Automatic annotation (TrEMBL), chains A, B:
Record SUPFAM superfamilies: DAK1/DegV-like (SSF82549)
Annotated protein name in UniProt: Dihydroxyacetone kinase subunit DhaK
GO cellular component: cytosol
Keywords: Kinase, Transferase
Alphabetized InterPro entries for the sequence: DhaK_1, DhaK_dom, Dihydroxyacetone_Kinase
GO biological process, one term: glycerol catabolic process
GO molecular function term, any single one: glycerone kinase activity
Lineage: Bacteria, Bacillati, Bacillota, Bacilli, Lactobacillales
Domain DhaK: 7-330
Listed PROSITE patterns: DHAK
């Protein structure tokens, strides 16, 4: 394993410290935690529902890279592929509550759900109005190593973007939670790996694939998928993922949003070629795409691979996806 | 070699097509070329000097990812690691000339310099006011495989940002070229590879490094560097690069700008850890950092590695680096 790190146990604190130092006009760290909070000039006088997300590290720019005006109010980082602790989540909640309450956006992993729930109880005991929504956009497999139900993956960033935009527009906590749930229900993702991620403390890839093999349906923590196959041209990969995802949408009228997401070690060049194939096939199928985005958004350390997220999107959501934000990663 | 592509010969046109389709509110393609031009609403009525850059593909988001209000007017993509042709560059020049002239930003590779020069002559024959500047920020080696003099690498994006901001503010062509040259002279970069890039048509990495080896001073086309060493902790890597670069600045007072750049397959996690070490060491040395940025800006396909760029920056330049832009990649 060759990685640009110091000691394995210092990875997360050093990463957060680097991120905050390099972007101090946008974000600051809550002392003694790995929670990152907005630090822009608008934040202090802001009157909006706070939006907090977080999860294990190794998925950068998710989540700290989405902290900023129009997206998240705060993000909490756990150790690599490990949930953040309830007390750290609770500190983030307190830091962003302006009296209008806080919405938690949680990816569906047992550890995350449990720890965010505990933080929520701590906040409730403190009379903070608080709700949570759980993202489970990965339709590849029903249950998984760390999950009951479907996993939360790249679609999370679209949920954070729409919820963040609505919060900035002044939506109240109940409506925001309902909107977030509706967005989650309309968002479906499938990913492919060409090469598994190497967790630093482990030192070797999470699973092995042959020189000409890929795996469909992998998760963002090296969870296995639904099928190992010979690698295909990008067009065929796009076709397989589109077929699988669009099967989840009985009504294919109206607008859709598309996210092509790199898993960490896949260059933008390949992501754009894949995007070309995806957008061509959707156009040929008369699927209307109102928003599309390509890039490394929800990664899995140095995994080589890609995921496709498709959302059936109200026109309002398309508008909210396009709203400018001031974040590191969007 | 496992890559998400179709036919090798279609890589660049398909990549450009995907990039443009996914970002049609920002950019459009000039028919029959791989040149990408601004497509935002402000561009048509704009009165500013046009800024055109380009070069071989494989360095995404450079250059097409920096086309947009406040940065490049157009970018021209060659084949992988190959200069764009003069006629394509010429089409881009014509598309962005509003009568105030066009500045070309060229990376210092023999093929690029020659082809941009030919395009410049074509434009001059057409009575378009035109100047060019050549970026040679890589201080690792004096001459290289494809270069007379120093190579142009990640510092290019900072040059494009400052020149683009100044052009938007209405600076004339002569002053813009002089500013660009001054910025280039103040910008120094050194890169490290942990693993070389695989050019798709070649099918294997450009050079081999041992399981515990890194190479200092590599270029963005698999050009060899100045030394192969055992891998060190991030702190030591940061120290080596800072020492080498800061030796180029006899006057270390005033402000500096810092760019930590991922080479394509190195996760943001490692880039932030490295950034933390760089910013800590500069702070300990009382070097004032007025601007810093971390991410994949000027990549080399799937190379694993990182580069550090440091610029001695006027206060005006820091301001221009911080100006918001509407691009895919900044």
């Amino acid at each position: 394993m060759k990685k640009i790190i110091n000691k394995t146990e210092d990875i997360v604190p050093e990463m957060i410290s680097g991120l905050v130092k390099a972007n101090s006009d946008l974000v600051k760290q809550i002392d003694g935690t790995t929670a990152v909070v907005r630090n822009d000039s608008k934040f202090a006088e802001e009157k909006q529902v706070g939006v907090v997300s977080g999860g294990g590290s190794g998925h950068e720019p998710l989540h700290a890279g989405y902290v900023g005006d129009g997206m998240l109010s705060a993000a909490v980082a756990g150790e690599v592929f490990t949930s953040p602790t309830p007390d750290q989540i609770y500190e983030a909640i307190k830091a962003v509550d302006h009296g209008l309450g806080v919405l938690l956006i949680v990816k569906n992993y047992s550890g995350d759900v449990m720890n965010f729930d505990m933080a929520k109880e701590m906040a409730e005991a403190d009379d903070i109005k608080i709700k949570s929504i759980v993202v489970d956009d990965d339709i590849s497999v029903e249950n998984s190593e760390f999950t009951q139900g479907k996993r939360g993956v790249a679609g999370t960033v679209l949920v954070e973007k729409i919820v963040g935009a609505a919060a900035r527009l002044g939506m109240n906590l109940d409506d925001l939670a309902a909107l977030g749930q509706k967005v989650i229900d309309s968002t479906k993702t499938v990913g492919i790996a060409l090469h598994a991620a190497t967790v630093p403390a482990v030192g070797h890839p999470g699973f092995e694939l042959g020189d000409d093999e890929i795996e469909y349906g992998i998760g963002i923590h090296n969870e296995r998928g639904y099928s190992v196959e010979k690698i295909q041209p990008s067009k065929e990969l796009a076709h397989e993922l589109i077929k699988k995802i669009m099967g989840e949408f009985p009504d294919q009228t109206g607008n859709f949003a598309v996210l092509i997401n790199g898993m960490g070690a896949t260059p933008l060049m390949e992501q754009y070629i894949f995007a070309n194939d995806v957008l061509n096939e959707l156009a040929a199928d008369n699927i209307s795409v109102g928003f599309s985005k390509v890039g490394n958004q929800v990664t899995s350390l140095d995994m080589q691979g890609i995921s496709l997220t498709i959302m059936k999107a109200d026109d309002d959501w398309i508008k909210m996806l396009k709203e400018p934000v001031a974040t590191i990663g969007w």
